[in-house]
Specification:
Elements: E1 3-6, E2 16-21, E3 24-29, E4 34-38, H1 56-63
Antiparallel strand pairs: 1-2, 2-3, 3-4
């Protein structure tokens, strides 16, 4: 199983972060709520299976890819016109 982190929204803020593998996509929100989708049986992500106890190990594996602290914002860099 391969894993890779993805950051669908607001990388500077930990409001919504996630990780995915070949078969799973996990999302954690700032309020602590979670989503987990099994792409093998639900490729369109209609059924959130994060609340099912049988998926606890999958969530634990994917959580390891998420940052635990927020980085300071970088400098505001603007392109200079030529």
């Amino acid at each position: 199983m391969w894993l890779r982190p993805f950051y669908p929204h607001q990388v500077q803020s930990l409001s919504k972060l996630g990780a995915m593998s070949c078969s799973w996509r996990y999302i954690r929100y700032a309020d602590g709520s979670e989503e987990l989708y099994d792409h093998g049986s639900d490729p369109d992500e209609w059924h959130n299976v994060a609340g099912q106890p049988t998926n606890a190990k999958v969530i634990d594996r994917l959580k390891r890819w998420l940052p635990t602290t927020e980085a300071l914002p970088g400098p505001d860099v603007k392109r200079q016109k030529k």
